[in-house]
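User: Can you model how adenosine-5'-diphosphate sits in this protein?
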Amino acid sequence: MVSATLVLATSDAADTRRLAARVAEHLRPGDVVALTGELGAGKTCFVQGAARGLGVTGRVTSPSFLLRRDYEGRVPVLHLDVYRLDDLAEVLDLGFDEALDGQRVTFVEWGDALRPLLPAEHLEVELTGRAEDDDARSVVLRAHGRDWQQRLAEASTALDPWQAPVAQHDGGEAMGD
Ligand SMILES: Nc1ncnc2c1ncn2[C@@H]1O[C@H](COP(=O)(O)OP(=O)(O)O)[C@@H](O)[C@H]1O
Ligand SMILES: [Mg+2]
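Assistant: Here's the modeled complex, given as structure tokens:
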């Protein structure tokens, strides 16, 4: 049974960057990583860590107003932020077709409008805040496509340090503490 989803947690921004760098070890040219989550959730923070993991040495900043940035690492890295776009034509104008040319790793911070453009094979990263701590984030990695399901399963051991503690539910024996 191939797992399609990993539910992880990070304790602060640096921790999210470390997790992202670890995920980046599994990325290769042609990959598309789609990041979802509200403004301030940590999408850009994740891309910063992943880009570092891909050998990008320069500063990675939010492309919020530029909407697109290109970096040179061990592989070319394309970072798009289409969060505020709701017109698919605008997304295509940014060169989204290059995301699919097999030459680079593409990170795209996105809103719902993008979904029809995403390739069947991609990794989704969903970031959300956690009520108990302003700096904590829930990071859900969701594999889309059979290839990514396989790869995420292979990556899961390396991501063990970020496995989210299982929530305590009623119905089992109390473990005490
Ligand atoms: N665990 C965490 N992961 C990511 N960012 C965090 C975390 N805790 C606090 N932050 C802060 O939240 C903000 C995330 O901003 P950013 O990455 O630009 O979000 P987005 O791109 O989703 O709008 C940064 O100021 C970052 O320092
Ligand atoms: Mg951002």
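A couple of observations from the model: Residues 171-176 have pLDDT under 50 and may be disordered. Helices lie at 13-24, 43-53, 88-93, 146-155.
User: Helpful, thanks.
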